[in-house]
Each structure stands twice: as C-alpha cells, then as structure tokens.
Amino acid sequence: MSRLPAAKPLPGLYRAGSALVGTGLAVAAAIFAAGLLSGEASAQGYPSPGVSLANYDLAASGFVTPAGMPPIGAPGMMDRSGSPVMPVGYNSYGCDTGGCDTLPMQACMDRMVCGTCGGGGGCSCNGMLGGGGILGKLRSGGTGCLFCRGVGCTACKELPFGYAGSCLASAVSLLRPYEEAGICNQRWYDISLEALFLDRQIKGTNSSVITQRGSGPSGIPALTLKDDGLDDLEAGVRASVAFIWGVGGNVELTYMGGNEWKEGASAQADMIGTNLEGNLYSFLTDFGTAPVAGGFDDTDRSTTQSIEARSRFHSAEFNYRRRTMFPYCRFQSSWLVGLRFMRYDDGLRYSTQGQTRLTVGTTTTIQDRFFNADSDTENRLFGPQAGFDFWWNVAPGISLGLGAKGAWVQNDVDRSIQISANSLATQNVVDGDQRGTILTDLELKGIYRLTHSLTLRGSYYVLAVDDIAFGGMNFQTNSSPQSVTPGNLTYDSLTLQGFTVGAEYMW
Fold first, then answer.
1. Measured CA angle at 474 (ends 473, 476), to 5 deg
2. Cα(496)–Cα(507) distance, rounded to whole angstroms?
3. Which is it for strands 398-421 and 234-244: parallel, antiparallel or unpaired?
4. Whole-angstrom Cα distance, residue 84 to residue 74?
5. Is the dihedral of CA 188, 259, 316, 386 positive or negative?
6. Residue 481's pLDDT is what?
C-alpha cells in the first residue's frame, strides 16, 4: 500500500481558526459573566434587560411578577421608571377599584392642583356633583373651559360647587358602609352600648277612677290611674359584652334597664258653701256611699286629692349563643340558651287634703283633714330562657334582623304599705307572694358598619310579662278609717316598648 504524505494546513486558515476559537471563548466568558451578574442583580431586585423573572415566586407572595419587573420593595425602586407590581387593588385610589373607601379625601386633595382631576380617580369619585351636557364637557376639559389652556381644571370641572363641593362630597363618602369584610362576614361584636327608651303599660288599670267630683253614681271622674303619666318614654341603657366560646359560639353578658318613671296628677275641688269643705270623694268609700253615707272625714269632702306613680326596671342576662351562616351568605341566624333576671318595682302614693270649720259655742276652729297611703311593690323574676335571631345581609356592612326570646320565670313579690290619717295612727304593712309566669321579648333591629371596628345599631324593642304585681290602691274598709287595711296583691300584665340607638365595637 502506498502512503500518502500528510496534508499541511495553510497558514491563513490556521490563523482564522485560532481567531474563531478565541472569539468563541470570549463570547462564552461574556455570557458566563453576564449570567453571574444577572443572578446577582436579580437577587438584589435589579433584573437585567431580557432576563425573565416571570412565574418567579417572590417568597410565596401569592402573585406572579411579569417578565422584567423587579420585586416589590426592591432597593432603588423609586428611581426606576414604571409602576411597581402589586396585588390587585392593593394601593389603588380609583373608584372602580374601591380606592374611594381607602382614601375618601383623595378627591378633595386632587383638586388642589390645576388639571389633576382630568387624570385622577378623584374626579370620578365626585360624579355626584353632575355630568353630561355642558357641565360634562366642562368637567372633561371641553372647548367650553377657559382655564388651564383648555385642558380643564378645578374652576370649571367642579362647577357648580367648586373646590368646597369636592371636599364636601369626599367627606360624605366617609359615611359609606365598610364593605371590605364582604357579605359573608359572620355577625359579631365584642362590646355594645345603646340608649334605651321605653314606655310602660299595665293592662286593665288605666281606667280605674281614684277621685270623683260629687258623691254617688252621679259623680264625675276627676282623677284616674291613667293620669299618672307613666306611659311616657323614659331613657335607660343596654350594654352587652361577648366572648368567643368555641367555633361559631360565644358567651354574652347583657344588662338592660335604668329606666325610671315618676309622674303625678292632682284634682282641685269646687267649694261647697262657706264651711271650707270640697266635693272630692275617694274610691275608698265608693265615692261617699259606703260604708257610711257621706264617706270619711279623712278621705272625702276633700279640697285636693293627688296620686304619684313611680316605676323602675332592670334586667340582666347570661346566654350561650351559637351562630350559623346560610348558603350564599345572604342570610344568617343564631340560637341561644341562658338565664334571665328581671326586677320591676312599682309604687303609688295617694293623698287627700281637706279642712272643716268647727264652731263650738262662740269659738270657731279650722280642722285639717288628710289621708296618705304609700304602696311599694318589688317584683324579682328569675329563670331559664331560650331564643333566636335571624339576619338578612342586605349589602356588605348593612343587615336587618329579627330576634325573640322567651323565659319561664318565678316571680318573688315583696310589698310594703304605709298608711297615715288625721284620725288614724300610722300603719306599716309588709307582705309578699310567689308566682310563676312567662317573660318574652321581641326585637326588630338593624346595623350599619362604618369601619372595621365601629358599627351603628338601632332597634324597636318590646318586652312583655304575663303577671306583675303593681302598687295599686287595693284596700278594705269597714265602718271607720281605723279599719282601712291593705287588700290582696293585684296582678296584671306588663308591657315595656320603645326603641334603642347605639353602637358596637370590635377589636
């Protein structure tokens, strides 16, 4: 076999190949160095152009950074052009993204600089001030605007109210309900405080006649229990605190009461002749007909008779409540069980005054005649109760509700009566009773959430008790005032109704 001589490279090709290899190594080194620099820059939050950080999880932040954008909070971010990447609605001030709730006075601040309304969200926040037609063109910087070189500014965009109107509208936006919790927010508060306004009604006693002008069946009623004025609204308080007790459950402590009613009325007599006697007759003697004709000197033929009624109300509750949410969050409800204590005091003071001219021989004297009876009755009710409430979530931050409770309670009654008269030594009588009864209450209520922590609330409230002993004038009389003694306790149903207004706080 013949051996061919080895081929020798041409000098030009050798030099070209060496240059190509050198260039390739330089490019590779440049790429490697660029990668190192890119990695270091990316770690510091400065990605190099063309290097993608798409889908890079920034410390499990929960959102994706588009390609080429630095992470939020990177050093020197404020010196770079463009906007940082943020979660949707995180720091947006436009009305469409809910920014008006975040900075409600931004619209007012925007109008301090000429022309900023045209590009800022604040202008749309103030859309209530008008729009459309000529006014709309002025607001958008139309040809009708004579200021800011035709681009529009505060002077024309805020017609007719100007800067003051912008601030007013922005201030009104502070009253919008708090919506960030959403419609699925479960009903809750830590502490609640309300003013409580109630009136008092006792069934069957309002028409009872106490005093009559003239004796017998022909007399005209002059004073009744209805005249005591206790059907007026009186102020009290309702306070409640709640503590979480398991999932969906809480313990509530509630005090309600402090309402006090105290009113009176009186009747003046028509004078009879010149003997200083009046024509007022008392119910104690069946208006001057029994047990003796003409009644008693102490209580009848009076010149003045009066009544003064007084009542006080207190209530305390200890409840466990369990809450639940209906599908789609439009409705929610709760049930409760607990203990209920209520105290209701009722008193009545009845007074008569009169005079008689007495002539013995040539001596004439004036004799004062009077009768006073003061009755004070205490009702203390205690027992278990159960109840529920039902809420309609009208919109985020606004809800309407209905609540009801019922309790089976034992009523321990204590009564004390003091009687005094011009012909009678002072008497003090103390007695009592014990009886089971039913206590129920009903409430129509609503809440308006202003902020995360503060919520306004109000309600119409009714409380009813089947049997309450009250301080009536139930006496037994025989042949003389000395035999006037208290009768049996009188029971009747009690209704307290009115409204509440107040606030809740949650921390």
1. 125
2. 33
3. unpaired
4. 9
5. negative
6. 53
Separation between Cα atoms, residue 148 and residue 138, nearest integer Å: 12
The three-class DSSP label of residue 463 is strand
Q: Report the residue count for the chain.
A: 507
Q: Long-range contacts made by residues 336-339, C-beta under 8 angstroms, separation at least 24?
A: 336/252, 336/386, 336/387, 336/388, 336/405, 337/384, 337/385, 337/386, 338/252, 338/384, 338/385, 338/386, 339/382, 339/383, 339/384, 339/385
Q: Other C-beta atoms within 10 Å of 230: how many? A: 22
96: its two tokens: 């469409």
Specify the 3-state DSSP secondary structure of 247: coil
Quick check: 209 pLDDT over 90?
Answer: no
| Tokens standing for residue 242 | 């709640």
| Single pTM value for the model | 0.66
C-beta of residue 105 within 8 angstroms of C-beta of residue 170: yes
Contact criterion met (CB below 8 Å) for 323 and 342: no
pLDDT digits (tens, 9 = 90+) for 450-505: 999 999 999 999 999 999 998 766 666 655 555 666 777 888 899 999 999 999 99
Write phi, then psi, for 204 (nearest 5 degrees): 80, 0
State both tokens at 221: 């009623």
Question: Which residue bears the tokens 């510091």?
Answer: 44
Gyration radius from the chain CA atoms:
43
Give all strands of the β-sheet with 220-224 in edge-to-edge order: 220-224, 209-213, 280-282
pLDDT in tens, 335-357: 999 999 999 999 889 999 988 77
Interatomic CA distance for residues 393 and 410, integer angstroms: 38
Residue 427 tokens read as 């008497």
